[in-house]
């Protein structure tokens, strides 16, 4: 593992773990022989062209973590990417405090694995749910998400657009639910009800090893009931299933949500193997063992199977809804003049629109 850290620039991490974005292991042979060589055109070579282009450009993924202090948000992020990617990992002792208001902070990293480069941005929301009065505490987060949409929109409507617009849009929000074992709190319902309309939300039960298996199953069932009762649509949303195959895969995921997760950056010796886990009096809770928790399912969803789909929904659904609304409401002023001009931002622009 090789890395250099800088608060001003991105952190460069080369990881030798996992199987993240292992794209195109076997290149397409240009002179590949087929059973009917005369009829072979070579259209399948487009896959290799796309792979090479994607490898050159790299990938971007912006993930937000939301939840009150002490739920293991930073630890889970470090566990997901097998590196010190969380904000807390780079904080000094003086900075380790509970803010009086919600402070949204992001830190970017360049991660490389098996030749695949990805710019990962982790957006933390310290202060959420930690105050005496948490009314409307979701609003600063809503404002931040819409601000990223606005920034992308202004780049799009420029006359001279960049060849590749930097993407700071929030692709996914992991919402941490405390392991109470009862039901969703009002703050959980309010947050997910508002934010599920503008971003992909993946709810997780934090520190799930504090619950028995029976308590965990009961809690998950109660949460799913609360989500349906409050019409909260979390990722993967049913209406965005593209075909029958997707529907089957996503139904299994929806039956598992919220994921009961355990995070740890500590390794322990278990049966002759070094494993990530949490040590208790009764033994080691193995983070990547699906019999112990559902961390592996969450990792697969976010990184190995659905990352591109999460980005596609952000772009084609959430951002598109924001873009259409903004252009409609700002297209014509009372005097009939165009409100949005290329290379300029209207003075009356408001970033905290609600859906």
TrEMBL record:
The keyword Magnesium does not apply. GO terms for cellular component: cytoskeleton. GO terms for molecular function: GTP binding. InterPro entries: G_SEPTIN_dom, P-loop_NTPase, Septin, Septin3. This is Neuronal-specific septin-3-like. Residues 331-355 are annotated as: Disordered. It comes from the Eukaryota. Belongs to the TRAFAC class TrmE-Era-EngA-EngB-Septin-like GTPase superfamily. Septin GTPase family. CDD domains: CDC_Septin. GO terms for biological process: cell division. Signal peptide: none annotated. It is found in: Cytoplasm, Cytoskeleton. Gene3D superfamilies: P-loop containing nucleotide triphosphate hydrolases. SUPFAM superfamilies: P-loop containing nucleoside triphosphate hydrolases (SSF52540). Residues 57-329 form the Septin-type G domain.
């Amino acid at each position: 593992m090789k890395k250099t850290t800088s608060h001003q620039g991105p952190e460069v991490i080369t990881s030798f773990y996992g199987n993240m974005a292992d794209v195109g292991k076997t290149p397409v042979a240009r002179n590949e022989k087929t059973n009917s060589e005369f009829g072979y055109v070579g259209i399948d070579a487009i896959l290799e062209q796309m792979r090479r282009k994607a490898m050159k450009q790299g990938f971007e993924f912006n993930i937000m973590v939301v939840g009150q202090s002490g739920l293991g948000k930073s630890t889970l992020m470090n566990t997901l990417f097998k590196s010190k990617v969380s904000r807390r990992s780079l904080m000094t002792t003086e900075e380790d405090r509970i803010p009086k208001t919600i402070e949204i902070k992001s830190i970017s990293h360049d991660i490389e694995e098996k030749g695949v480069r990805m710019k990962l941005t982790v957006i933390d929301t310290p202060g959420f749910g930690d105050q005496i009065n948490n009314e409307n505490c979701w609003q600063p987060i809503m404002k931040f998400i819409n601000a990223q949409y606005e920034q992308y929109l202004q780049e799009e409507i420029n006359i001279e657009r960049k060849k590749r617009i930097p993407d700071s849009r929030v692709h996914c929000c992991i919402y941490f639910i405390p392991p109470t074992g009862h039901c969703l709190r009002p703050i959980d319902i309010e947050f997910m009800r508002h934010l599920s309309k503008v971003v992909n939300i993946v709810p997780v039960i934090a520190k799930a090893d504090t619950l028995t298996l029976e308590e965990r199953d009961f809690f998950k069932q109660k949460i799913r009931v609360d989500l349906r009762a409050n019409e909260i649509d979390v990722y993967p949303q049913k209406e965005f299933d593209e075909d029958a195959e997707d529907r089957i895969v996503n139904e299994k995921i929806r039956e598992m949500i919220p994921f009961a997760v355990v995070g740890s950056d500590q390794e322990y010796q278990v049966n002759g193997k070094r494993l990530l886990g949490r040590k208790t009096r009764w033994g080691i809770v193995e983070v990547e063992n699906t019999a112990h928790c559902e961390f592996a399912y969450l990792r697969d969803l976010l990184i190995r199977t659905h990352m591109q789909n999460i980005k596609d929904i952000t772009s084609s659904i959430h951002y598109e809804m924001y873009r259409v609304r903004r252009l409609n409401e700002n297209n014509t002023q009372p005097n009939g003049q165009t409100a949005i001009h290329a290379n300029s931002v209207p003075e009356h622009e408001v970033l905290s629109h609600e859906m």
